[in-house]
Amino acid sequence: MPDLPPNLTWERAVPPDATGPGPWIEIAFGEGDDGDAPVYIRETSDPDNVVTTNRRKWDAFVLGVQAGEFDHFVEGMDH
């Protein structure tokens, strides 16, 4: 596991009507508020496997999701 800052606050991305244990994605924001501030991502079923990116890339990803740029990945899936 990478060296993670202590006291990260993990936010779980769970649909409001979700049931069951997941697995779910969790996100934690590191210190700082600029584009280089770290963002940590993990899956609840494997919490020791943490991916790190930065706030600039995370914000671009979120805007892409909101704009529907990734919808083709879930076409035909049960939601």
Automatic annotation (TrEMBL):
> Can you give the residue ranges of the DUF397 domain?
10-65
Q: Which organism is it from?
A: Streptomyces regalis
Task: Kindly give the InterPro entries that the UniProt entry links to this protein.
Answer: DUF397
The name on file for this protein is DUF397 domain-containing protein
